[in-house]
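Batch manifest, entry 17 of 40.
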Amino acid sequence: MVRYIIRRLLMTLPTLFLVGVSVFSLIRLIPGDPAQLMLGDGVDPGQLAEVRRQMGLDQPIHIQFVEWASKVLRGDLGVSLSDGQAVLPLLFERFQVSGVVVIIAVMAALTIAVPAGLFAAHKQNRAADISIVALSTVLLSIPSFWLGLILLLAFGLELGWLPVVGYVPLSTSLSKGMTFLVLPIVTLAVIEAGVLTRMMRASAIEVQRLEYVTHARAKGASEWRVLTRHILPNAFAPTLTLVGLILGNLLGGIAVLETVFTLPGLGRLLVDAIFARDYPVVQGCLLFTALIYVLVNLLVDLCYPLLDPRVTAE
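Output type: structure tokens
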């Protein structure tokens, strides 16, 4: 087990290096001069050259990367060109919003999808199975922004149960802050439940055809025990992989939903920084999102031995 964990941790290091190189290179390929953007038009060439020197833009590209990487390792992602705020604290502040929405939504989707997928596999090709598959297909086909707008119209404007715009930090008021997060969480949970249900069903159908499941039933084990003790642990592994991918994708691509619900999250920060050509913030957002994606999938890999001990043996 320890060797497995160490091996997975070591395999993460080249991935993180490639992520850093990719983010650094992509930002350098964006047209425009960050120093020129910061100073504005009509600036004195001497002043522009001085700012470029201070930002290290006059150095060779490999020197720029080494200096940038050393600052990143120290937790220094630079300063926003728009408001002069340090990038790293800004990322943590915005991530608190996006992280709460995404994590709660995925956990809620799992709570729905795992029993629904198991039940559909148990009732394969029957009316219950066909109904669950049809419903999950409809759910995963709905665009998140459209469902969000419908929920806002229904529960915000028509019924008046929940607020339509604005945001209150959870640190200020937990109950009031959650009222602003209910609709985004429900929107993501409903859509992701459809994806996870189909994956859980497919995995459970494959597992229940294996010999050890047939042997358990032949020994007289109850169907509930077969489902929960023999099928669920092995069928959940592919679903757990999908959960890791979903968490990473949502944290990086939640900008549309945050715009619909006017949430000050990480995705909206990235979009605003792109429009403002705030290169340090864009670079920080990309690096932070990629890092979260890698760490989430590393955590998923480390959880595999808990479901299937054969993973460490392999």
